[in-house]
What does this fold into?
Amino acid sequence: MYTITVIPGDGIGPEVMGAAMYVLEALNIEFKFQEARAGNDCYHETGTTIPDETIEMAKNSDATLFGAVTTVPGQKSAIITLRKAMGLYANLRPVKSYPGVNSIYSDLDFLIVRENSEGLYSGVEQETEEGATALRVITRKASERISEIAFKQALKLGKTRVTAVHKANVLKKTDGVFRQAFWEIARKYTEMDEYSHMEVDELYVDAAAMFMVQDPHRFQVLVTTNLFGDILSDEGAGLVGGLGMVPSSNIGDNNGLFEPVHGSAPDIAGSGAANPAAMILSTSLMLQFLEEHQEAFKLEQALLKVLKQRKYLTVDLGGTSTTMEMAHAVREILEEC
Ligand code: NAI
Ligand code: MG
It folds into this structure.
């Protein structure tokens, strides 16, 4: 039995979370779900976007599912606070094409490994006389740690190239540290037999953004700093059917949090139009993290079937179904297995 902290959040967060939980119930795994609060509604009711109780629950469970939250201006970000408090230093964002989904490319499968604990999201901003500044913190330790994760993920996924993405030509000091740490880890890993076949290269982030549109097949595993990873993963989502399709893992040494890449989508909240796929795929990533590989595969295959059939798809995928109708179709396939 796994104890899972569930943080639905705001907007479409609770809608896609409800859909994913409904699907999870059809699996042969026992879960104890404990709901916790965060986000905009939570702020208006409790005075904080992320209560300590939520952090404690997430820290002490086997894994956490996070929907999405609406940002409250001037208040601390719930998700960034959680990532920090739980020590989730790696954000893994697979960009994968699924059959049946109208997208620019139909055969993409690469992974963005985003440093999740520092960079421009360190939260150190200051007002100045002229305007404001933000501190971009890049440490050797975090850069090495995230580079190691990139190589380990590459091996695990059968990939043969790891590409570092940075802007060391302009951000000479900060990305200089990132770049140097990456190449040190690359040397260390490619000297090991298991990794000796791995190609290693690097790109400036602006060129990487261009290649991602023009020639994304060149990518296998990308590793980059926090803000670049955030931007590139939304770009990647745009190549494979949009934000409704892309899940993510936030991983640390002894914890994991799983969430769609998208936000709370206030423009469609309450209309039943939210695509539950990214949240369902995030639960599949959680199952992999819990070493429930068979059930994770079953879940992904069931979703794949629904996408392929093109009968129960949400509006963003060109269909007319609601969030729950699409989830129901996935659950029906699972119950047939
Ligand atoms: P967003 O990701 O919420 O939405 C961007 C666009 O994609 C919208 O047109 C939306 O309708 C569409 N979209 C997103 N998810 C979808 C889904 N599952 N199905 C169908 N269409 C979907 O980003 P936006 O609008 O920039 O931000 C909205 C709020 O979410 C803001 O308060 C923002 O700060 C917050 N946010 C929260 C995140 C989180 O909780 N991790 C991540 C990104 C944004
Ligand atoms: Mg983002």
